[in-house]
Amino acid sequence: MKRAIFVSATILMSGFVLSACSKGVSTPSYEETLKQKCDGGGTEYCTALGEAYMNGGDVLNIKEDLYKAVFYLQKACNEKNAEACSNLGAAYATGKGVELDRSKALQLYQTACDGGDANSCSKVGIGYEIGLGVEQDSFKAVGFYERACNGGDALGCFSSGLGYGTGQGVKQDYIKALEYFRKACDGEFARGCYNLGLMFATGKGVNQDEVKALEFYGKACEGDFAEGCFNLGLLYIYGEGVSQSKNEALKYFGKACDLKLQSGCDGYAKLNVSE
């Protein structure tokens, strides 16, 4: 959202400064300009204004006003602006500026999803998965996760992988799970890399390959997912997929511990005692 506000502000600033310089008139404030553009039918400006009122301050120097925030987001959402619908959904999901209403939030997220907002598809999936704002339905949850993934949302890819990996909501299919975890990992979602490592380590949906497991645990660890660091340490202890190295094991157990994983702390302590 900040990106949208900055883009709008930059466009407006460049246009109106030139106008002021050439005609000798005062430059309207960003707030006034956004209102004018919004009233002229520019839903992206209504969205930017609504978000500015929701958060307050920022580059536009607009004071927080939750009533106005909801008004402008609703105005843009009524015109099928997916980003506005998603932000309005977040307001209903948290009770910010409106009465808490998770069912309404889910409806708005679904509108945003239908409008092409992939992250909102994941939020609808979460709602169906845990029964938040709607009756629990694992099958529908996976369907929305897949839509999110197809739209480039890494969380959606990861959640789709979990559905196929566990058989919750869909028929268990390790090959599909592997495909979705790979997409999640490519999207820098560390838990997707970790689960991909697990599948290579155990040979589920793919030939067992400890070198590949090492690679994906490494990516998970780089993304600060503690379990990835811990499993990487284990591979170095036992020399699976890599040469044994107590120093490397200590390094990765230590990082897992720093990331608040108790087993990482325990592994680090035991290796130190054994020296």
Written description of the protein model:
The chain has 275 residues and is mainly α. The chain folds into 3 domains: 1-112, Tetratricopeptide repeat domain (Serine Threonine Protein Phosphatase 5, Tetratricopeptide repeat, Alpha Horseshoe), CATH 1.25.40.10; 117-187, Tetratricopeptide repeat domain (Serine Threonine Protein Phosphatase 5, Tetratricopeptide repeat), CATH 1.25.40; 189-275, Tetratricopeptide repeat domain (Serine Threonine Protein Phosphatase 5, Tetratricopeptide repeat, Alpha Horseshoe), CATH 1.25.40.10. The protein has helices spanning 2-23, 30-39, 43-55, 66-78, 82-94, 102-114, 118-130, 138-150, 154-166, 174-186, 190-202, 210-222, 226-238, 246-258, 262-274. Helix 5 packs antiparallel against helix 6 (102-114). The chain is elongated.
N- and C-termini, Cα separation: 52 Å
Order of helices and strands: HHHHHHHHHHHHHHH
The pLDDT mean sits at 89
Sheet-strand content, in percent, reads under 5%
Largest sheet: none
Low-pLDDT sequence parts:
1-26
The name of the CATH superfamily of the largest domain reads Tetratricopeptide repeat domain
- CATH level-1 class of the largest domain: Mainly Alpha
Globally, the shape reads elongated
Percent of residues in helices comes to over 70%
The CATH architecture of the largest domain would be: Alpha Horseshoe
The name CATH uses for the topology of the largest domain is Serine Threonine Protein Phosphatase 5, Tetratricopeptide repeat
Structural class: mainly alpha
The count of domains is 3
What gyration radius follows from the Cα positions, in whole Å?
Answer: 24 Å
Number-wise, the strands total 0
Give the count of helical stretches.
15
